[in-house]
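Long-time lurker, finally posting.

We've been working with 3-ketoacyl-CoA synthase (Papaver nudicaule) and I want a structural starting point before designing mutants. I don't trust myself to interpret raw outputs, so I'm hoping someone here can both generate the structure tokens and explain anything notable. Sequence follows.
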Amino acid sequence: MIYMRKLPQTMYLVDFVCYHPPTHLQVPTEYFLKGFHHYITLSASSVEFPRKILERSGLGEETCLSEGLHAIPPNQSLALARKETEEVMFINPKDIGILVVNCSLFSITPSLCDIIINKYKLRNNVKSFTLGGMGCSARVIAVDLAKGALQVHRNTCAIVLSTENLTLRAYHGNNKSMMITSCLFRIGGAAILLSNKNKDKRQAKYKLVQMVRTHHGSDDEAYKSVSHHEDEAGELGVSLSKSIMRAAGETLKTNITTLGPLVLPFGEQLRFLYSMVNKKLFKNPKTRMYIPDFKLAFEHFCIHAGGRGIIDEVEKNLKLYPVHVEASRMTLHRFGNTSSSTIWYELAYIEAKGRMRKNDRCNSAVWIVLKNVKPYFANGGKCNPWEDCIHRYHV
Ligand SMILES: CC(C)(COP(=O)(O)OP(=O)(O)OC[C@H]1O[C@@H](n2cnc3c(N)ncnc32)[C@H](O)[C@@H]1OP(=O)(O)O)[C@@H](O)C(=O)NCCC(=O)NCCSC(=O)CC(=O)O
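Top reply, 14 upvotes:
Generated this for you. Predicted structure of 3-ketoacyl-CoA synthase:
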């Protein structure tokens, strides 16, 4: 009995839903650019910049912005920002013991967790955590936090709510790195139900098998790659530095080194080890680090849809095929960069395509599929954000 209590708890992903924004919130390119012209005093040289970025971004014509950002000039009131968050975050409140909410750019009192607890009248011993400022990486951090809490609290359900809120963050200046953020980021969110209850095993879709987190905050360049600050003219904005690709590449390398031994076939591990020893120990300048074939470890890849450039880079570095990055590209096209929730739209895409088969493995936390997941239309009308458009994808 004592031995049993010490066993690590298995964490199941019972189900998840993604916010499906209403069509009146859509921002087709021309409409978006018209709004941009109204609320930004663009200098002559930068007038064409947002158009250029939008055309090359990988975003389609149906991505959405919050109600406040449709107004001309934008209505950036706290009330509308709060309304946005309340609309995006929704749960089924039954039996929740742990609540984790992550939202990078919107932090208020009462907290985002408090809003949910009050709205759904959650029980008073619920363990709640609100994470802020962590960008898209919070998608892993929030699940990891829930996992840690589920190790301590047995026979418990946890909800993770991942979202971003841009209403208060529309940028009104000429700084290109900050304009890019406005061009790429869109409204979105996801709710993920996790459980360590034995009885949930039967209905759960996925089981967590590995979780890897690495932190590159000690590297100054990585630290500054996404940053909220004032521009040269004193306008607040969130800048994306050009070095983000390099930072993403470095993080990928560290993750590969950590995750490789846990998921790769033995032969791939050996090849990787051989190249590492050659390069690091024998300092052989001719040896290039071997990038293991992760296609042998995963059937599905959910790569953060941060921008076309990011997806291109990961596809190239990991030598993936177009089908492996299809869910990321289609998510970027249909929903835009929704920050920490993009990977859940991607998982929903793979499900909607009917590609999720029993025993398949998905990154980025490593999930194993517990049963064939039926696409939405075979699922009794269960909510999938792709349900009205999956037949039109891929594009
Ligand atoms: C923005 C792009 C779509 C542009 O694609 P292109 O293939 O056209 O790239 P390009 O290099 O030719 O760039 C076109 C123009 O944009 C400029 N440009 C590109 N990136 C820039 C940047 N970060 N800051 C300032 N300017 C930039 C180039 O100088 C050029 O300007 P000129 O024409 O004047 O020479 C792509 O670079 C991309 O996807 N970048 C990654 C976006 C990103 O960082 N996403 C992660 C967000 S963070 C995130 O998602 C996590 C979170 O939520 O926190």
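Before you design anything, note these points.
The longest helix spans residues 244-263.
The two ends are 55 Å apart (CA to CA).
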